Amino acid sequence: MSVLTRHQIIENNGRPLFVLVPYAEYTAVFSPDAGENATIPPAVSKAANMGDKSLVRAWREYKGLSQAEIAGRMKISRPAYARMEEKGANLRASTLHRLAAALEVEWAQLCGDVD
């Protein structure tokens, strides 16, 4: 007996390849104004969990940006930015908002726990 589910998994030889989700759910998560519902890509999560990297550094590397590029976008020095991306850095909400703008991500994607 099959049960209708919201998500459909497409497999090849028993290995999952794709997941189909309702369009409204997709846009709620990936739209520019997703806010708190914004997700963290698996590659970013893995880099922050498996390596000795902060979530800020994992995002920067995921986006293929240098520390100098982000520092330039924030109009601060590279060493000042480097301190922000150290693991365990205690960043203020206003700093997280500036970092999010420079990284072109939602600020909630920088302050949530990485699962």
Give me a quick take on this structure.
This protein has a domain at about 35-110: lambda repressor-like DNA-binding domains (434 Repressor (Amino-terminal Domain)). It is about 50% helix and about 10% strand.
Describe the structure.
This protein has 115 residues and is mainly α. The two termini are 33 Å apart. The protein has a domain of 79 residues: lambda repressor-like DNA-binding domains (434 Repressor (Amino-terminal Domain)), CATH 1.10.260.40. A hairpin with a 2-residue loop joins strand 1 and strand 2. A two-stranded antiparallel ribbon has the order 1-2.
Structure class: mainly alpha
How many β-strand runs?
A: 2
Oligomeric state of the chains in view: single chain
The CATH class of the domain at 33-111 is identified as: Mainly Alpha
Could you say what the CATH architecture of the domain at 33-111 is? Orthogonal Bundle
**Poorly predicted spans:** 1-5
Major sheet description: 2 strands, antiparallel
**Largest sheet, order of strands side by side?**
1-2
Strand fraction: 5-15%
What is the number of helices? 7
Alpha carbon gap, first and last residue: 33 Å
Residue-averaged pLDDT: 81
CATH evolutionary superfamily of the domain at 33-111: lambda repressor-like DNA-binding domains
Order of helices and strands: EEHHHHHHH
Q: How much helical structure, as a percent, in the residues?
A: 40-55%
The rounded Rg comes to: 17 Å
**Overall outline:** elongated
Tell me the CATH topology of the domain at 33-111: 434 Repressor (Amino-terminal Domain)
